[in-house]
Amino acid sequence: MRVALLTGGGDCPGLNAVIYAAVKKGINHYGDEFIGFLNGWKGVLENQWIPLTLESTDGIQLKGGTILHSSRTNVKKIPGGIEKVQEVLKENKIDALIALGGDDTQSVTLFLAENGISAVGVPKTIDNDINGTDATFGYDTAVSIATEAVDRIHTTADSHNRVIVVEVMGRDAGWIAMASGIAGGAHVVLVPEKPVDLDHVCALLKYNYDHGKHYGVVVVAEGCHLPESGQILGSGKVDSFGHAQLSGVGEALAKLIEEKTGFETRSVNLGHTQRGGVPTAYDRLLGQRYGLHAIDMVHEGKWGRIAVLKGTDITDITIKEAISTNRRLDQRFFDVIAGLEAKV
Ligand code: F6P
Which of 139, 212, 303, 334 is such that its CA lies 20 to 30 A from the CA of 326? Predict the structure, then answer.
């Protein structure tokens, strides 16, 4: 078969591992040929691609980012977009398409599969919030990076008797905040699933100061809602899927904490640092397992389906189910956060 791959949406450590494994098994086990469209759906619309061979993909599983580059392009919103995709796939004699991406990218994959295109998906996000899968590759790397940052914040916050708010990614779900906050020993962890209770946050920090610890570390997910102002929309820009760019909740929260407590409060936004660099061993392994399953799905004709991790097994579900909702933290995780907080 002649198979095309593409990566859409925000990049994610482990994308290259998926590409590597799909190409390797496809060529060695099935005798496939591969191309990779550049810059997500944009590259399909513009017919921009590179050949993917055993030589060109050799060793990429160790690297971060995506060798195919990425964009946030919504084919569904482009007049004649679906026809153009069909035309480009036909012109390049593509028998099947593997799209690596989050819910936005996969909404396009589903749309194409429903319109006769042989396409399957691989879930991708550092946010770990795709429905129906227990873990997405990239999340473990993001958590390691954020945890190291939170660890480092302790000594400088302590030295200056400050509160420092660390803003991490997490638009709809607080997986990164929860894991890095707990692993990094933050005194307060705030997630988008629950509105911020400023009185409670300040009470937790005051507890520290009243009990001999004259500093505080707060981890807040970018999608958290603040009292009165709600979500903080950094640049005011909106992407082609209608999502506002989020940024600045850490800084806004730091101001509120300083006003309310009188403690000097600073903030740091970890931003895209969390998506950069090499994937952890876990993400390299998980990414390769997803890649192997994706090429098997192609040969089984599982169009409109997406690879998922269930427990320790890689299997697949419909893309429709995967994009129907976000996977958010549930009560079990709120109990962990609450169980570790000081009693105030
Ligand atoms: O990939 C998801 C995500 O990491 C979100 O947490 C964040 O809001 C978004 O990407 C930012 O992506 P970009 O700035 O690249 O558009």
Answer: 303
